[in-house]
User: Fold these one by one.
Assistant:
Number 1:
Amino acid sequence: MIKEKILVIGASGQIGVELTLALRKIYGNANVVASDLREENDLLKGSGPYVSLDVMNKEMLHVQVIRQNITQIYLLAAILSATGEKNPNLAWNLNMQSLLNVLDIAREEKLTKVYWPSSIAVFGPSSPKKLCPQQTIIEPATVYGISKYAGEFWCNYFHQRYGVDVRSLRYPGLISYKSAPGGGTTDYAVEIFYEAMEEKKYECFLGAGTYLPMMYMPDAIRATIELMEAPQDRISVRHSYNLSSMSFSPAEIATEIKKHIPEFEISYKPDYRQTIADSWPQSIDDSVARNDWGWKHEYDLPKMCGDMLKNLEIQK
């Protein structure tokens, strides 16, 4: 059996930190190489190898893959929805070229697997709002969504044409206490916890009734690893799997937080991110992932809020 050596690109980001730590528990610290353009995240220091790496420099990336005997790549580097709207060309170039670089190297070096995340941002105003299905009308309204949808087709193409075992999930909004969010439209659902604990108030950049699909980071990390460890014959989707656990509005999460912090107050001042949120589905149908490889979520809104606040209290 081949001994896996994993490279995580974008390891200092919101998903990367926790995914790297989880992979090191499974495969051993020395067998998971963390990389990023940014400084190494404090939570990763001392837990395993770290290299400074620019995924846009294909030659440099290729050298690292060969030098480190890499067999799997998790590509997490991306410019997210809200940040991407401020610089569309940069978002398109980074999100697209980084994926093409990784897929090309995976084909040349015959890597065993590649993971690349997509997003609910692929859906647009014409997609169904409730229980948006795996296959539906997809007309993304942001450059981030456009790049993710194009990326899904590249993943499928490299699998069909070259046999690259590339796997992907369409993440909903992700909520985490370990690392900061990266400029997405769902970031309010992380910020609100910090503000609730420190200021006892929060001004939300989305309207009170804006429902969006969300997921607590432990579920997202587990889903990613379960997908990657599933046998090839269980994977029927090579574009990207819908993934879901809960949907809520800012008003609903505020109500839940008030159960723990009664004096907490929320106000609303929607900005440009409201238009992005309004273009996305309110809930996702992920029955294909559940049927194919047995996906099951663990956290709902009350359980997630309790765990988030408990861990933020420990960090204080």
Number 2:
Amino acid sequence: MILRLFRLPMLRLLPLAVVLMTCGAQGAEMEMVKIAPDRKGFILDPSGDRFVPWGHNYASVDLMERLVNDPERVEREFAEMKAAGTTVARIHPELPDLLASPDQANPQSLERLERILAIAEDSGVRLKITGLASYKIKDRLAWYDALEEQDRWKAQAFFWETIARTCADSPAVFAYDLVNEPGAIGEPADGWYLGRMGEVEFCQRLSLDPGGRSGDEIFRTWTKQMVSAIRKHDPLHLITMGMLPFPNAYKVAAEQLDFVSPHLYPKAGKVDDEITLLKRFDWGKPIVIGETFPLRCSADEQRDFLLKSRLFAQGWLGHWPDESPAQLAELKATGKATIHNAIWLSWVELFKDVGPEMTGGKSQ
């Protein structure tokens, strides 16, 4: 989730008419995604066609703001992602926006969630919905952070019940992503959050008072509670968790997940080391790399990592820029691109170029 540092908001130039032509009527043809019978990937139901999650994290800290202030922008960007070959977008609806109290949802937020479902269905891009996002420090809920552990878990379970109840019937949902990069245990003085980058923190702790419980026990109990909350309302859509690159910490949680979703950023000169790390997440379930990007390596090394990772992973999500691909290309052509612009453009170009090799060239 450290990609936010590279984002420089700019105006979109793509006309809405282009978006509408691109979207078409794909939503009516969408099928549900299931785990393949061999447990080595994904298929569409009922056709049985292979499905490859290939896409991006989208609007990680301002999705709901975009839907309120500029919904046409969201439509355009989903059309842009689809045109680039995207099959899945990972979104992060904020808990402070969704919950009005520990057991009451914000009706306006549910309307926005339904709108993003409709946009996804119309565009043909499925959603990986990440839960419990409280990334923006200024927007946190005092009542939520003051809850004791068990009451906090109940509020988190209610969040997931609300999401599942709203999304259960939509074929646009690829999966529910329980939480981004959690830690099991912290000290009360540490607080619930970690992973600070500027004015956001992307990670959460599950317990500040373990009471003799191990990290494995906390992960097992918490994951079971969240999965149960979802399954009350949605028995079909897949469930995973966004994982830091520490396989030993998450293996117990993975027992209750449909697939595994580590976040891996290869380092320059160490692509093979990242592949070795990826192999350690092979627990007999499909692997979708939930975050990757040429942040600490060149675009060529990122390509090498992606292609080599196909031996072990069945899906990959990078990050979609705030600027449109056309804007980034124009900045490059006019000599106005910053180093940040160049990094984003290198990813978009790589994504489009290597996409057929990663997905088998199939339209999904």
